[in-house]
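User: I'm writing a short report section on ligand binding and want a predicted complex to refer to. Could you take this sequence and alpha-D-galactopyranose and write out the structure as tokens? A short remark afterwards would be nice.
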Amino acid sequence: MEKLENIFESHFGRKPAVLSRAPGRLEILGNHTDYNEGYVLSAAVTQSTSFAMAPKAGRVCRLIDCALSGEFTIDLDDMDTPRKGDWTNYLKGALVELRRRGIEFGAFDAVLRSTVPLSAGMSSSAALETAFCFALKTIYGIDLPKAEWARVGQAVENKYMGLQSGLLDQFSSIFGKKDALILCDFRSVEVLKNVPMPPGYSIVVANTMVKHNLVESDYNLRRKSCEKARDAIRRVHPEVRMLRDVNREMLESCRDKMDALDYRRALHVVTEDERVMQGVSFLEKGDIRSFGELLFLSHESSRCNFENSCPELDALVEIARTIPDCLGARLSGGGFGGITIHLVRHEAAELYCNRLKSAYKAMTGKEAQTILCDIGDGASAQPL
Ligand code: GLA
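Assistant: Sure. The structure tokens for the complex follow:
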């Protein structure tokens, strides 16, 4: 593959000042817990988005995306309104958000390339936002704490794109650790610990190829449900700030005080938080089988209680259960389509992918795409 620096140079006739990269992420366990201030076990993958960038005079920024033809522009004086279907919205949103924080910056030329599958549930948009922010912060000397950069990316989604997502995607893209899962606490917004990947096991991603567009899905509705359940519990337990503070007993005792649907949504979140903590302790004891079982339980809870699965995601998980080399599988990310993750014996992984794909084809008539994932480090930027 041609080096990004070279593409930059041949297009703009000068050298870039920085190279940055930010990975996609996998949500291993802890579904829809982040915006409830709960726990998630996640990982950064080696698929990433990279930028080569240099500062530029004037107010108009120029961009090349290696996957698309032509040059794109961003006018720094005309960014307030997102344009429908325009991928540069993710960058404009970040610039608007920085400006809102009183941060100064000028224009730039940039080339970008991404290997993160789009609209699958591997956070291609967080990788785009984060790689962009890391390049920009290097050329304009913008100094913010790492977790704050995750908030900038989240604000792009919340305010610019209209998706009320949590911090998981950008946070994992920034704080990922090679060969480890990261245990994230979304109340204190920190990594509590790095949990090494179980030796001999790999994560296989299987994409249903059913596109998940979270902005048009019920994602925001699910978040509303969680808040309604929280409010009902708070009337009895005023100390409760978010579902993170709720255990199963509290939830049960307030069951008749809330809408039956909101109860099921909250049950998913509360039990996911439990599963994350249990999962970490299983991994630390080397009990991979019990950890895998938690992945299946998580999927079941998504399917029945949170209702963010779909027949194709269910099919992949059902098939996984029939193949002994797989210890656990579940939908990963927002849901409503996108990907499943599978914890598979490393030696058998390739064979596993083939079996999964042919069974999926037989069951649904659709072609799944599988990726044997390597767990990589979080975002970085290198001045040139
Ligand atoms: C999407 C959101 C995240 C998180 C997951 C579900 O990926 O962007 O903030 O809520 O869904 O866990």
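A remark for your report: The radius of gyration is 21 Å. The chain has a mean pLDDT of 96.
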